[in-house]
Amino acid sequence: MTGSWYVYKKGGEIMRRKKLAAWVLVLAMVSATITGCGSSPANGSAQASEPAEERSESMTESTEVAGSAEESPSWKQDTSDCTVTWFLAYDWYGKKFDEVNNAFDRKLYEETGIKIEIQTGDTDKLNMLIQTGKLPDVITLDANSTQRKLLEDNGLVQPLETLREQYAPDLVIPQSMIDWYTNKDGHWYSIASYYYGDDNIADNKGYYETHNQNYVRDDILKQIGMDYDDLRTKEGFLNALRAVKEQNIEYNGQKVVPYMVLFADKAAEQVAQQLGASEEDAEGNYQSIYTTPEFREAMLLFNQMYREGLLTDVSFTVDKSQLEQEVAAGHVFASTAKTNVSAARESLYATDNDAKILYAGQFTGDTNTQIMVPANNNMGWTATLINKDAENADRIIRLFAYLNTPEAVLDNEWGVGGWTLSEDWLVVREPEIMALKASNPTEFAAKYAGDMGWTSDYTIIQGTYPADGGVWTDDVYQQTHDNRIVIYDDKCFANVAPVGGSDEAAIQARIKEYRTQALGKIITASTPEQCEAELDAALVEMENLGLGKLVAYQNELFQKNKEKLGLAFAFPGNQ
Q1: By its UniProt entry, which Pfam families does this protein fall under (predicted)?
Q2: Of 251, 333, 469, 544, which has the maximum CB count within 10 A?
Q3: How many CB atoms lie within 10 A of CB 92?
């Protein structure tokens, strides 16, 4: 059972509601078992697709779809069996498409006739696939990666505007995304996930989000006699960590680590941003965050944590999965970065309902009173492209049209059968499935969830977020509606990656590798003075590695990005 989305008027206001109704299944007539993908619609077959989605002043909507073939959505034009190969440049992604046991996959297959053969790997594997000409049908990778630009600039992927116009006019994509991702050759190749523009935010009642957030164990915070307001300054945050250590807080017989982060990721840069750092200087030029005074302040803070035993060597050695395991086991009091805790806290709560990890905001430093942090990849986290040699590109673009419907987006988030919509256009979760997600996230994911939001618009989820979101309802609201902070558009800063194979790309790679080892020396220094000396030495070495040349290159791109958006300054502290 699927549904159609429609607009109706009530009391003079435009209302939106989900009307549950069965789609008329369009079955392809075949005389034998189909082992490959169906071809493009033959001449004379129904070509009319669902009309382009209308937009009210607050929410993206689809027009009502009737049951006739002429009015059926594009993905119903051909539902013959088709297998699409899809490579994701994320070796941690473990999904296996299962149309038998997973409700989302089954519904996708029933609606489109498509099965997905998922392939994963790191960027080295992606580079090998590019070099050998063995790219799968669909490629998903970091939106700001050099590989994306390489694929687009070398004609290795198909223009999406042509495919959309010909086969899937009902594929809804924010125009601002198309404008941002239009290549210098005039074509649009990439669909970004988690993209935020003025248009889709306004249409869907969305908002900017940041992953630069601190989280703490709520039960332990109460145990040490402190509250969340205490955590909003650097000194207050330090005092909370000290209390955990001094009071010898344990959980399940193991001493709790006051603070654990991923220095291999962005912890150092994120804390510097909380303290006021920006990658735009006062004159509007791009600058390295490592040269800012706030980064120095962050290093001194981490050094103080380390010398006081609030931060251990583990933060230099763990990877993301290992940190998540520590958080899920209840061994960590505080961490920075939403991605470190978002899944792990659900696992911890499933085993102990008293052990909740909640949003603790950000803390100010020595010079800033207003926290300004960048949004989390407003230009999108990932980009998804179609291989130029994909023979079933018509089916793929229609698959994207299906995945981008509000219904599929919400199915992916809340599970098939796990939600309905209220009259005020908010998700109402099905209690049994909601309880399963809280008690056994792994079983919920295997049975109901899609984990296939690689092309979808997350502002749809934001605008319909449930009032009954379970144990995390209030916390999610605090994360996304914290009036103490400013979250600014980061597109200009994110889209400055050097072209693969260039001198600047090589410089960036060398600096990235050096940064990780340098952080260890800086933060574990025996005194604050030695910490600063190590930082000074690291900055000299970065300059020797070509930091100045890299920043000059990035500034050129940065200025073009600002010009594209009509901005004189990108950092609100400079405006």
Answers
A1: SBP_bac_8 (PF13416)
A2: 333
A3: 10
Residue 19: pLDDT over 60: no
pTM for this entry? 0.77
Confidence of residue 469 (pLDDT cuts 50, 70, 90): low
Indicate the number of domains in the chain. Answer: 2
Same domain for 352 and 483: yes
Does residue 491 fall inside a structural domain?
Answer: yes
For residue 74, CA distances in Å to 49, 59, 564 come to 5, 22, 33
Tokens of 347: 């696992």
Backbone angles phi, psi at 310, to 5 degrees: -90, -20
Query: Given this model, what pLDDT does residue 45 score?
Result: 30
235 and 363 together in one domain: yes
Task: Read off the tokens for 202.
Answer: 């306004």
Which tokens in the block code for residue 301?
Answer: 């803070």
List the structure tokens of 284.
């509007």
Domain-ending residue, one of 431, 464, 497: 464
Asked if residue 19 is part of any domain, the answer here is no
With b for 16 or more beta-carbon neighbours within 10 A and e for fewer, the 123-144 pattern comes to beebbebbeeeebbbbbbbbbb
Burial of 242 (0-12, 13-18, 19+ CB in 10 A): middle
Give DSSP secondary structure letters for 326-364: HHHTT-EEEEE-GGGTTTHHHHHHHH-TT--EEE----B
Under 8 Å between Cβ of 84 and 392: yes
Residue 47 pLDDT greater than 60, yes or no? no
Q: From residue 184, how far is each of 153, 179, 191, 554 by CA, in Å?
A: 8, 11, 16, 18
Tell me the pLDDT band of 265, cut-offs 50, 70 and 90.
very high
Both 401 and 491 in one domain: the answer is no
Both 538 and 428 in a single domain?
no
The answer, yes or no, to whether residue 68 has pLDDT greater than 60, is no
Distance CA 234, CA 274 (A): 10
